[in-house]
Specification:
Layout: E1 2-15, E2 20-22, E3 27-28, E4 32-49, E5 56-59, E6 62-63, H1 66-83, E7 88-96, H2 106-120, H3 127-137, E8 149-153, E9 162-165, E10 175-180, H4 191-201, H5 205-225, H6 228-247, H7 258-272, E11 277-281, E12 287-292, H8 296-304, E13 312-316, E14 322-323
Parallel strand pairs: 5-7
Antiparallel strand pairs: 1-4, 1-14, 2-3, 4-7, 4-8, 5-6, 8-9, 10-12, 10-13, 11-12
Bound molecules: (3R)-3-hydroxy-3-methyl-5-(phosphonooxy)pentanoic acid.
(3R)-3-hydroxy-3-methyl-5-(phosphonooxy)pentanoic acid (PMV) binds next to helix 4.
Length: about 325
């Protein structure tokens, strides 16, 4: 029996990963940049044992059906190939997210699984190689290996596409991200399908791709300079460009709901009163507000006039993977 147990934290991109140039290897079209957060995480235990006759996957105490287990099995196949074993595994995962958050947990989930497998089979992968492995499970998972600000280098093959931590003098500890949870339903269009559709059909996609490296350079410069306004402005603009691509896809789609727009408008309203804060959104309707810690009370107080306080969750910068 070989056992491993690890925790990984979720990350939210400030410069988004949107589109793959290789669907099998999960190589992205552009570099992305994220902040790892402390509020949402996954703990995963994996046991490889000769006696198992198939892979078994428990998520939040529930035995998962074929579709979810298949995704895990595909990832475990990569691990088995690396380790030179044919042992099946039992994977037991628990997501720590606020009730009804409805947040995608694939980044923390696959990063935790990769780290647990690394430990269980004594693969002795470096953080870089662990990031490459997690990437094969879910692109954004490669960033959750590291804490703080993280960049995912797109690379051009399996060896060269991985994430690394950005030096920031711990500036991220002065920042926070306020989640406005507007919906806990399964998303209509998964990030995988959404990306594919926009890459293949959206006439706005070329604009996204042309701007991504410029946005990334601006964000890295802002982090270096600890310039909150510059970082927030480019993150918000980059998010809007990503979401813009979906409107020109065939068929067109959007991840926004009326409550997403309400939250975005609230952020603009706060800025007009001199409170520096910026929004970002991923492949779903929830809105995340980037804010300096000192301004959390103002931002929260205003958002509480518009949303239920149970819909608001504050997250701070989080660490990289932890072996349990
Ligand atoms: O890693 P995935 O397949 O869940 O894709 C994540 C895509 C976005 O969340 C929309 C952007 C990002 O960089 O995290």
């Amino acid at each position: 029996m070989h056992k491993g147990n690890a925790r990984a934290f979720t990350n939210i991109a400030l410069i988004k990963y949107w589109g793959k140039k290789d669907e099998t290897l999960i190589l992205p079209m552009n570099n992305s940049l994220s902040l790892t957060l402390d509020a949402f995480y996954t703990e995963t235990e994996v046991i490889f044992d000769e006696s198992y006759t198939k892979d078994i996957f428990y998520l939040d105490n529930q035995l998962q059906e074929e579709k979810a287990t298949m995704k895990i099995s595909q990832f475990l196949n990569l691990v088995r190939e690396l380790a030179g074993t044919s042992c099946y595994a039992k994977v037991t995962s628990k997501n720590f997210v606020p009730t009804a958050a409805g947040l995608a947990s694939s980044a923390s989930g696959l990063a935790a699984l990769a780290a647990a497998c690394n430990q269980a089979l004594d693969l002795q992968l470096s953080d870089k190689d662990l990031s490459r492995l997690a990437r094969r499970g879910s692109g954004s998972a490669c960033r959750s290996i590291f804490g703080g600000f993280v960049e995912w280098e797109q690379g051009n093959d399996d060896l060269t596409s991985f994430a690394h931590k950005l030096s920031s003098d711990n500036w991220e500890n002065e920042l926070a991200m306020l989640f406005v949870l507007v919906n806990d339903q399964e998303k209509d269009v998964s990030s995988r399908d959404g990306m594919r559709r926009t890459v293949e059909t959206s006439s706005f996609y070329s604009g996204w791709l042309a701007d991504a490296p410029k946005d990334l350079a601006k964000a890295k410069h802002a982090i270096q300079e600890k310039n909150f306004t510059a970082l927030g402005e480019v993150a918000e603009a980059n998010c809007l460009k990503m979401h813009g691509t979906t409107l020109a896809a065939t068929p067109p789609f959007t991840y926004w709901s009326s409550d997403s727009l309400k939250a975005m408008q609230a952020v603009r309203q706060l800025r007009s009163t001199g409170i520096d804060c910026y929004f970002t959104m991923d492949a779903g309707p929830n809105v995340k507000v980037l804010v300096e810690k000192k301004n959390i009370p103002h931002v929260k107080a205003y958002l509480e006039t518009l949303f239920d306080s149970a819909q608001l969750v504050t997250a701070y910068a989080g660490p990289g993977i932890e072996i349990l």
